[in-house]
Specification:
Layout (H helix, E strand, L loop, with lengths): L20 E3 L9 H10 L6 E5 L5 H12 L2 E4 L9 E5 L3 H5 L4 E2 L28 E2 L13 H4 L4 H10 L18 H29 L7 H26 L10 H12 L3 H26 L3 H31 L3 H15 L8 H12 L4 H28 L4 H10 L6
Parallel strand pairs: 1-2
Antiparallel strand pairs: 2-4, 3-4, 5-6
Helix pairs in contact: 5-7, 5-10, 6-7, 6-8, 6-9, 6-12, 7-10, 9-10, 9-11, 9-13, 12-13, 13-14
Length: 420
């Protein structure tokens, strides 16, 4: 045994024979013996004592060093043969003191009651799991979105679960062979529309992806919902591009006006406003477009793609709506900022050309299916109905958000002519 004690203890008034005993047997501290001692000490109060024996080579020196590092007291029982050395370890207060002042970070289950999700996530909580205790002195992380009111929705967890269950595989859930050759003008129209949809989906990916990197991980349900939304959009970009290339084509035209409309989404820095413009108004309008194509597209492949994408986009709209309903419930005056954002965006885009003429013409031709006067008249009528359906959809969402009918109708009409 060691010649001198490490962190020597005074003799205990409690007989050594009555102390709990841990026999390390042949297990060394380099192979996990410390866990046996650590867990046994954890069951004792500070100052409580434990007898430790062992037979691994050098275990006494290893125990002595470990006790010194951990702040536990140690003495060796007098009068014991070196081969049968017995240590008396007393639990020190260092470990308990280390966690004195640790921060409690809510509860892992957001539904477990008041305080489960903090109104303000603290910088020094950093990347800790919500509900963990964070040791004092942890570094501060700057997450710009750390205010619950700015980001929260109680529906995020459910919408994430729905998204996970509804994931689809572009290789196995779409029949890429079900794409008959179409008349060249109709195929051109589909390629133009898919080109337009890709650039819109690029915006729909980048906006949540940017906010995702600014969101405090304390709000993990929203973090997960945004992450899977980004994955959805990446999959949409992939399948729309593959549809473009299905018959050997390349993407068609992208206009300055369309790019300006989408840039205004990326320039918005407020999470709630961006979600309102993109997810509620933009993707809400886009759902109508996809549903239109699901019905009117002339080939089964395009109809399959649009059906699956529309299902995803409807969830994205639901996430945006649920957040805005939460924020407006707690901050009714925020409605004014939403209205102002629509009006400002309309004014900023007033000098642009709006929807690409080629996209509008493509919609008519896709609905018509052929270049005849009768078919084109039918196609144009269907596209006009699509426009009315889009406006009605925006109007109904604005009503749900508490806008008065007249105000909701006006704001719905001011939405960008580029749809997104």
């Amino acid at each position: 045994m060691p010649d001198s004690d490490s962190g020597a203890l005074p003799a205990s008034t409690q007989p050594a024979s009555t102390l709990p005993v841990i026999d390390l047997q042949g297990l060394g501290f380099d192979a996990g013996a410390h866990l046996l001692v650590k867990h046994a000490l954890a069951a004792l109060p500070v100052g409580g004592q434990l007898r430790v024996t062992g037979s691994a080579p050098g275990w006494q020196a290893q125990l002595s060093g470990w006790c010194s590092d951990q702040g536990h007291g140690l003495r060796w029982e007098d009068g014991v043969d070196a081969a049968q050395a017995m240590a008396i370890v007393a639990r020190g207060g260092a470990q308990a003191g280390r966690w004195r002042g640790a921060a409690q970070t809510g509860r892992s289950d957001a539904r477990s009651g008041d305080g489960a999700v903090a109104a303000q996530a603290q910088p020094f909580w950093g990347l800790a799991a919500r509900g963990a205790q964070v040791e004092a002195g942890a570094p501060a992380f700057h997450f710009r979105l750390s205010d619950k009111l700015q980001v929260w929705t109680g529906s995020a967890s459910d919408l994430y679960a729905q998204a996970v269950a509804a994931q689809w595989n572009a290789d196995t859930d779409i029949d890429w062979n079900d794409a008959p050759e179409l008349p060249a003008p109709v195929e051109d129209a589909i390629v133009q529309l898919m080109t337009y949809m890709v650039e819109n989906e690029n915006a729909a990916l980048l906006v949540p992806a940017r906010f995702l990197g600014q969101l405090h991980p304390h709000y993990r349900e929203l973090q997960a919902a945004l992450a899977i939304q980004v994955a959805d959009e990446a999959r949409h970009i992939d399948v729309f591009t593959r549809r473009i290339r299905r018959h050997g084509r390349e993407p068609a035209l992208s206009t300055a006006g369309g790019q300006a409309s989408l840039k205004s989404l990326l320039d918005e820095t407020d999470f709630s406003v961006a979600g309102f413009l993109l997810s509620v108004l933009g993707e809400g309008t886009f759902v109508h477009l996809l549903q239109f194509l699901q019905t009117e597209a002339p080939d089964p492949l395009t109809r399959q793609i649009c059906r699956l994408a529309a299902r995803d986009e409807a969830r994205h709209v639901a996430l945006g709506m649920s957040h805005l309903l939460y924020r407006l419930q707690h901050e009714p005056g925020f409605q004014h900022q939403l209205a102002q954002a629509v009006e400002q965006r309309f004014d900023n885009l007033a000098g642009t050309s709006g929807l690409n003429e080629e996209v509008f013409d493509a919609l008519i031709l896709i609905a018509a299916g052929t270049l005849t006067p009768e078919a084109l008249a039918r196609g144009a009528a269907r596209v006009q109905q699509l426009m009315r359906d889009m406006a009605d959809g925006r109007f109904s969402k604005l009503l749900r958000l508490g806008f008065e009918r007249g105000h909701a109708e006006r704001l719905a009409s001011l939405h960008t002519r580029n749809f997104m």
